[in-house]
Design goal:
Layout (H helix, E strand, L loop, with lengths): L11 H6 L2 E2 L5 H10 L3 E4 L3 H16 L7 E5 L3 H8 L6 E6 L5 E6 L2 E6 L5 H12 L5 E4 L17 H8 L10 H15 L4 E5 L6 H18 L5 H8 L4 E2 L3 E4 L7 H10 L7 E2 L5 E2 L2 E5 L3 E5 L15 E3 L1 H15 L1 H14 L4 H4 L3 H15 L11 H12 L9 H4 L3 H8 L1 H9 L10 H13 L17 H7 L11 H8 L2 H4 L9 H11 L5 H13 L4
Parallel strand pairs: 1-5, 2-3, 2-7, 3-6, 4-13, 7-8, 8-9, 14-15
Antiparallel strand pairs: 4-5, 10-14, 11-12
Amino acid sequence: MVSLKDDYLANKDSFEKAGITVPTFNQTDVISQGIKNPVWVHFGGGNLFRGFHSGIAQSLIEQGELPTGVSVIETYDDAVISEIYRAHNNRHLSVVMHADGTFDKTLNASVAASYYFNASDSESFEEVAKIFENSSLQVASFSITEKGYNLTDSAGSYIPIVQSDIDNDPHHNLPKNNMTALTFVLLRRFKKTAAPIALLSTDNFSKNGDKLRNSVLTIANEWLLKGFVPQDFVDYLSDQKQVSFPYSMIDRITPNPSEEIGTRLKKDGFDDVEIVHTPKHTNIAPFANTEEVHYLVVEDNFPNGRPAFEKAGVLMTDRETVNDADQMKVTAALNPLHTALAIFGSILGYKSISSEMKNDDLVNLIKNIGYSEGLPVVKSPGIIDPKKFIDQLLQKRLPNPYIPDTPQRIATDTSQKIPVRYGETIKRYASNPSRSTNSLEFIPLTIAAWLRYLLAIDDQGQKFEPSPDPFLEPLQRKLSGIGLGSTNIHDQVAPILSDSRYFGSNLYEVGLGDKVEKYFVKLLSGENAVSKTLHETLEDKSHFK
């Protein structure tokens, strides 16, 4: 048996016997350089980083293109750092799962250091601040999910932790929110060297760089009003030649670690397979399982230089092309399909995405959303063919039984995803004189299914637990009293369907509110109404008979 903490250079033969490829570099050198002269830090130490970004870093280190390791900065869960990263010498096993059942297994040693970035750990907070003070730092990347950038609640007011950070001088009270904490370490950088830096969001939503920029500048301007920071600091953050916020499009299905995968790894001779379920409900393991197919498209805007990302397969291009690629994926070719499977799959009781792909109605549903409703109004990015992208998704990626992804994981934070995944397509139809929102059927059906999902009642009439979502409780309160058999639902759903925060526009004003209501009533008509309504709608409206 081999373990992550074993000397992989001295015991290369043992790792090879277990089918594991090991690095050719010495991690000690990577760690030393990463601490002395940091180049790249990453916020968010979860499965996506371990399944994607860290592999990019390792490839560049192997090629001699990156002299330092990446410092991982976890903003949410301290147990991820203590029980996973530091417990295994900041190493993990990367497992790429092919559709034919074969695995590519690689020991990843690209992480130089790991930190829990929180005011409760002042020592780690200071270490992160010192990294940012170092002018050698070129890029800070992020995979902290959409909600990690949010500053306000459902009413548009600052959430209490953000308001507290705004009201208190950060020089005397360490900020507790991750966006305010980020702004503070940028302030430390400005005061120490004012060196340029790129802040690269790689989270899965459109124009992610703008959202990160808006959050940072909002905090900086609030502190300016209170006299905590100088105008020069706000000017520094506002100057793209000093602090850039590149767009990116990222795509790699990286689900929670699978016990089945762990069992196979153990049988192959790998010892570190215990999955950790932290008190904050993070599911993580010494290994990260992910799919073979992946894309990362990045706007090439790095004012302090950057690693040679393109030599590790990253597509470096201009902002418009990134935006087109992201719009293609997030609003038409992948994310809307994923969310539809998550919503319907949760209500219908599915426990894996791959098993949903054996249901002809669900496959037909996402074909209609992707090919028929999304693609006609999305611009091709040129570097990726949209139709081929969906073909690959439907034929190779989603049906892969070795990708242990679940509708429940995809359903997390759905209220944050719908404005982009469906709202952008709706706006394109509403603003195009040659198109009509009346032609949309399966996006409205999916939105109605989301309302049905919020009731937390499955298709058999039994209760289930919805996935975490910051707006779950207020949305459920608005729908209180609606149940199977309800028909008079307008007064309760109208405030939701007219709220542009959820859909990007008022659905009544764009001609879809009434259609969503009608579908919702059908989905409420009794047990098995969800599967029945889906089937009947496909029989009547599908473009794929």
